[in-house]
Amino acid sequence: MIEFKKQVTENRIVTTVAKWIADIIVVVFLAYFIVNYTCERYSIVGHSMEPNFENGDVVLVNKIEYHLSKPKRYDTVAIEAKEGSSVEYHIKRIVGLPGETVQIKNSIIYINDQPLNDDVIDADIYNVGIADNKIELGKDEYFVLGDNRNNSDDSRSQSFGNVKIDNIIGSVWFRVLPFEKFGKP
Asked: Is 139 considered catalytic here?
């Protein structure tokens, strides 16, 4: 009888340990999946997104949202830009959507020849770049601008140009740093 109780106790310990190991494996797998496939951390470098994002801000980018839906006007997105043999990452705001025509005249953004009246940034645009002429977006292209409209390398630049959907990593989802701005941007 004592042998039986000892064996049952040993089985409970083995079962408990096995459950703990299984739980740890599941948690590690989920953490790995979440970190590598659903979101990614980026640091803002430069001043092109001021005043909404400042140099040194750290944000989390939702990498699966655009597998389920399409980017929308005014979404803040992370973009992968290949420049020669190097890759750079940019944070910009979507202004023009696929199939639209974008032009900037007299500091006003025009979408399909209509002024963009509800722009989230209220600033005069002095540097219109290539957007002084109408820019027709392809079926997989977006026109992006930095929030600091007069100090941003964005779709107005010939070298930056329109952004293809394949180069959009995801939407800026959450600000991690600085702590006083912690939360949804």
From this structure: no
Cα(48)–Cα(151) distance, integer angstroms: 6
Please give the helix or strand (H or E) that residue 103 lies within, else none: strand 101-105
The answer to whether 151 touches 92, Cβ cutoff 8 Å, is no
Which residue among 63, 92, 152, 155 is the active-site one?
92
Provide the whole-model pTM: 0.78
Q: How far apart are CA 162 and CA 18, in angstroms?
A: 53
Residues whose CB falls within 8 Å of the CB of residue 39, separated by 6 or more in sequence, listed in order: 60, 61, 62, 63, 170, 173
Give yes or no for a contact between 150 and 51, defined as CB atoms under 8 angstroms apart.
Answer: no
Q: Which two tokens stand for residue 185?
A: 């941007």
Other C-beta atoms closer than 10 Å to the C-beta of 78 total 22
pLDDT in tens, 133-161: 999 999 999 999 998 888 888 888 888 88
Q: Is 48 a catalytic residue?
A: yes
User: 19, 43, 48, 184: which is the annotated catalytic residue?
Assistant: 48
